[in-house]
Write a structure and sequence with these properties.
It contains one helix and no strands. The N and C termini lie far apart (50 Å). The mean pLDDT is 82.
Length: 70
Amino acid sequence: MNLAAIGVPGLIIILVIVLILFGPRKLPEVGSAVGKTLAEFKKSAKDIMDDDEKAEVKKTEASKTSDTEK
């Protein structure tokens, strides 16, 4: 299940529930916290993917080096 499957009506219902739970004064703080959390998650995921790519490049270079030494 992906986020796109929720749709606009689902997002409106979620927004209304959050508004009822936290009130209108806390809503900007909740939104800011969610935004910061998503940004940190994206940054971490990108770092992990970059690390994997660097490891793959090093592995490829090492195998090419060992092949040329033979």
